[in-house]
Every structure is written in C-alpha cells, then in structure tokens.
Queue: 4 jobs
Job 1
Amino acid sequence: MTLLPERALASTQERRGGNSRAALLAAARRLFAERGFHGASVGDIADAAGLRKPSLFHHFATKEALYREVIAELYAELSAAVAGPVAARRSYAARLDAVSEALVECFAAKPEAARLLLREALDPCGPIARDSAGRARDILAGAEAFLSEGMAAGEFAIQPARQLLLSLTGLHVTYFALAPLVAPMLGAALHDRAMVDARKAAVLGHVRAMVLAPPSPRP
C-alpha cells in the first residue's frame, strides 16, 4: 500500500472538503429556491448533495448559516455580473445594454437565483431578512444612481428613477423566477441558447423603450 506524504494527504482532504462545501451550497440553493427556507430540510439538502447530514454540519453549524452563505453567494454573483458593464468607459446607453445582457445570462445560467431572490423579497420575516434587505438596498441604490447619472447626461429620459428601477427589476427577475410557468408556455427550457438569446433581445427592446431619451428633433 502506498502512503501519501502528509502534505499531499492534507491537500487531498482540503479539495474533498471544498468539493463537499460547493456541493452543499449548490444543493441548498436549488432546494431553498424550490421550497423556501422552512420547506427545505437539512436532510434533503445533504441527500441532494450526495452527502450525509453530519457532513453538512461539518461545514455549516446551522441551517441558517448555510442559508446565509447561499444568499451572500447569490448577491456576490449578481454584483460581479454587473460590475464590469457599469464601470466600462462607454456611453450610458451602451452600459445599460451590457448590464441587461449580463443579468439575463446570469439568471439563465443559474435559474434558481431569480426564484430565490423573489422568495426573499416576499418573506420579510425570513431568517436573514434584515441582512438580505441591506444587500438588496445596496445593489438597488447603485442602480438608481446609474439611472440618475444617465438622465443628467441626457442619454436617459427624465422620469422618477426609483419607479423606473423597480420596473426594470421586475422585467429582469420575474421571467426567470416564474420558470415553472414560463417554460411550458414557451415550450422550451429557459436556459436553452436560443431561448436565452430571444429573451435577451426582448429585454433589450423593453429596456431601451423605457429608459432611453428620444432623439433630438432635427432643426
């Protein structure tokens, strides 16, 4: 029998631990999105990850701790998806398009994300409602500032920025959050490439119609 050197053994165990943690987070996100915090049991999450319940508690002391990590990861992914497009040195209109495309791609790649966001918004008494609301407010405040700057620059139509933001949020999130209803209506999985491209085109058209300032009349 060949024995692994101590350092190699530790590295192998660390990789296995990391894989287990990632599997738990993926399973938890899916089940929390489908059933909510209270409906998804620790045992079901461990089973879905292919692990035993003690393995879950090795990585997360409580179910709430696991949920917090899932939500934190979700908001981090959304922030990362839009950070590049927002910071790009391009016109506000071009950045607006890029943000919309990035959000569609993000939700299509992780279809449970939009549903989980909607569950969080509808559950003000949830286990981390205060923390989650704070993160959501930070993201929304940044988006509102971007819209206001675009209006000041003359690229976006002047209108109440907060109301516009809420309309845009619904446009991007609701379609994917209602996937169990939407997919049968369209007759295809929402993550199929053709469906993602079709949704992206539709969203861009709606966003531009709502946000962009009309062209100046010719003299």
Job 2
Amino acid sequence: MNKTELIDKIAAGAGLTKVDAKKALEATVAAIKDALVAGDKVQLVGFGTFSVKKQDARTGINPSNKQKIEIPAKKVAKFKAGAELAEAVK
C-alpha cells in the first residue's frame, strides 16, 4: 500500500474528504517525527511504539577490499508492534 492508497482508506474509514485525510496523515507523521527528534517515545496502545535507539560506534569491514573501517555512532528510528497488531498479523 502506498501513501495515496492509505489516504483513500483513511478518507473512506473516517468519512473525510481525501484532502482532509491527507492533512490528517501528514499531521500525524509530522507529530511522530517531531517527537522522535526531541528524543521522546510515541506509544499508540494496541498499534505499537515508535522510539529512537542509539547505535554505538563500531568497527566494520569493507566488503570490496576487506579493510577495517570505523562506523560512527548514530541514532535510528525503531518501531515495536503492539500486542493487538502482532496478533492481527499472525
């Protein structure tokens, strides 16, 4: 499912116009992104939890020449499915 199809489903499910559904989806995504950038966790009960995980710096190997390289520390977005979502997908 792509963004357009998701907007169509939201519009049909919530009785909104496609323009309003698109605004709602974009506002939701922006709110989640802003919270993660601020270092907060976003929990949607039954759906899942969005959080930021810190990955430490580490040594890796360049596969083309087998030389060791340093991979810098970074933050990555993480999603953990909630119980209801996990059960529905089974």
Job 3
Amino acid sequence: MKKKILLGLSLTTVVAVGIGYIVTKPYFDEKARIELLADQLESRINTRFNDGSKWRYRYSFEIPNNPKVADWNTENVKLPQILFTIENREDKSKVSYWALKIDGTDPQLLIPEGVLPPAPNTGIDYAKYMSRSPNGRYLVIPQENSTVLYDLDNGEITDISEEYGATRHDIMWDTDSTQVVVKKRDELLLVKLGTKEVVKFTDVNGSYARYMTSFAKPYMSQSEQAIYLSFNSSLAGFGCGWENDEYLETFGESDVPKCGNTFVFDAKTLKLVDRGDFTPDSYDCNVWGGVYGDGFYCLGGEAYRSGRPSEKMGNFPATVNLLAFNGSDMWFLPVNGRNITRVLHQPKENSPTTQMLYLYGAKGLKKSAFGFGFSRYVIEHKEAESWSELLHPLPSYADLEKAKAVLEERNHG
C-alpha cells in the first residue's frame, strides 16, 4: 500500500510539473519576446529609428547532421526559399548548396559538397544571383568561368553562357518551368529546360543585337513573359526619327513603333513586340532590374512595376535588388549582406513599423550570400499577403510600450 501511495504521489507530481510547464511556457516565451524587443529598442534609443519605424528579426537555424539530398519538387512549398552555400571549414573550394524557407525553417540540401565550386566572390558574393525554378527542379548558378544550369532530378550540369568573369545576373523563369531567360553583361539567353537548348538573343535578332544588350538596362515581367530593355534615348542608333541600316536589318519594317526609350521582347521568341517611353528617363532613373520579375529599382531609390508605361510603387533609398511586390509591400535584397527587407507602403493600424529586416544565420557555420527560389504556389499568390502573414510579426504599439517598461525597470531597478 505504501508503495502504491508513493507511486501515486510521483505520478501526481509528474502530471503537475507537466501542466505547470504547459501553463508557464507561453508566459516565458512572451517574456523573452518582449526582452528581445527591449534589447533592440535600447540599441537604437539614440537613433532616428527609436520610434519603432524600422525593426529587425533574426532567424537562426541549424544545419542537420549527415543530411540527404532533398526531394526537388516544391509543389508543397508555400513560402519562397532562400538559396545559400556553406563552405567546407578546411577547404573553401568545396561548398554545398542549400534551400531554406524565408521563415527560417526546413533547411534542405540540394547539391552535395564538391559537386560544384563556389560562385565567384569579388567583394560581392555572386551566389546571390542563384535562382530556382518554380517547380524546384532547376537551378541557375553563376560560376567563375560560366553560368550553369543544374538539374536536381539527375545531377546534370549544363554550361549555358560563354561569358567569363563575375557579373550581375537578371533571371526570369516561365511560370510553368519550361524555360528560363538569363541576362548577364552582354548576353541575353533563353534556355529551354526540357532539352537544355540555349537560344541566344543574337541568334534570333542578328549580330547587331549584341550592341543592344551591351548598353541595355534590362528588367523583366514574369506575368507578361516579356523582356524590357531600357536605353538612353540619345544613344547612337536607337534615337527617334531615324534608324540606321543595322537596325532595319535586325528588326525590319515591322509594325513596332520606331520611337521610345524602351524595347519590349517576347520571352518565348526573343523577338521585338513593342517600343515606347515605358521607363523613366535615364537621367531620372538608372534602371536596376528585379530578381523576381515584374518590376525594377532605380539606383536613385524608386521602385517601379513593369508595364507600358511602368508604374511607380514607392521609394527605398539604398543600393538593393528588387525582389518582389507582395500585396502592398515591396521586398528587397541588399547588394551586400544576408537579409531580406520588407518595406510597407504605410504603417499598419496596430504597428508603427514601415521597414522590417529579416536576417538569417546558420549556427556555427560559414554561410555565403544567398540567392532566391520560389514555389509554384508563391508565383500564383505573390500579390497576396501570404509572405508577411507567415513571417515574424511586426511589433505592435503595445509591444513597444511593454519594451519601454522593461527598459525603465532595467535602468531604475
């Protein structure tokens, strides 16, 4: 009987501890969240962002031990993915390629260590121009001497570029993952994914078209499957009112207008389909294309949605790459750095924050700059608010008041 009583007391104690943990865990989680807000508030108390208009949140994730290569199919991926590389600690020439959801979860090995070398790094880590197809199967990855298409289904590596050296990449996938357009320095390429066939812009439009791609500022529209090439209107050979022999030989006597600072090409055929003043004047806007498609960023700080004409969406004065428009928000990747910046059109009703930085770090490992991937779901819903709903929330006015109270207690406690 005595043993039964003791056993009963032990079970009661275990149950009570378990219930106590369940009851108190939310309290301690909330306390830790407010303490973190207080730390951040304290770090910027003497800056112009002490009103909570600019905030940051760091996702820290762990890389699994002895990982297996993940299934390439992204049909069930409901959030965009960050693509990044991890260096071998003892041999920096060996890297592995990974994917991570932008909410900091589910790190997945895509390409094992040693299969591909690292992307070039000249102060800018060109791994940031990696991109993944909507269905998850293909990766476009900059390399030291070329750009490669990597097929995650069978490990096939295809060189798709003849240009050497590190350079910015503008990449646009077809929404059904049948092709990808890649613009780098003087090259503009269409890759048919089923056959790995590479069609060059000059193959379609003649050798003079190389002159166009050399001077063009490209941006693309995924929804239109169109390629926009923006020019300085005074550039010889592209002005209005006259066209030289090379221009006529390239485009002929088509019905496309002969005047305008922007040429529009069909992404399926690489043929000219329109021309007009669709881009702000080059003196007002030095076009910097978008990573995701459907828009571009001016180095002066303005973001535009592509169109005829383009539509100004807002301002963000920094050197960045436009990632996407998502609902009423603009999303950017820095030229240098490892974060995503969300810029709100205006403060939310419950929060003063108009700029949110999401940072990413792998515990105990050297992580490279990252590229970007996305699932079919994300492409179909990129105008919705789904990204922001599934990321760390903006601090509310009430949260900031609690954080200020914690600081007050620290200073006078």
Job 4
Amino acid sequence: MTVIANILVGLVAALHVYILVLEMFLWERKPGRSLSGFDAEMARATVPLAANQGLYNGFLAAGLIWGLIAADPTGFRVQVFFLGCVLVAGLYGGLTANRRILLAQALPGALALGAVLLAR
C-alpha cells in the first residue's frame, strides 16, 4: 500500500507542477486560456493573479515532494499536511470558482490522502 500511496502523492505533486506552469508561464497562451476559459483580453488582465495562484500550486508540489523524500515520521506528517491543503484548496475552488476543480484537484488529493493514511 505504501508504494501506491507514494505513486498517488507523486502524481498529485506532478499535477501541481503542471498547474504552476499553466498559470505562471502559459496563462495567455492556448493551454492556459483553455484552463481558465478566458478570452485573450481577460487572460492578459489576470496574468498577475494567475501567476500568484501558480506560485501557490508550486508550494503544494514542493511540500508533497518533500513529504516523499523525508524520512518518517516527518515524511508522513508532511504528506498529510500538504494533501490536506490540496484537498481544502480543491474544495474551495470547486465551490467558488469552477466545479471541475473538484474532480481535477480535490478528488486526486483525497485519494492520495486516503492512501497515505491507509498505508500508515
């Protein structure tokens, strides 16, 4: 079960690196605009906001990677903390911004968190 948990945590970390790239570097291009649904003008106007969101997603990814490489009990605690952050961010985003976030962020975070807790 530990291997499955580590794979899921790694996938959630990779997802957040991908979101970082979309929000910080590709926001005005097709991949970023398809994520947001914004037209070119709105994307241009919201670049600083998107970059800030991307940075936070990078922090989530960094924390999850730290949790994967740190020895226990630190690694376990860090994974639980950052997966909890991912889950809360996904729930909040899904309820306030776009329901797709529930499937794209909250669900993977919840599955990884469940696997980490079961592997313990």
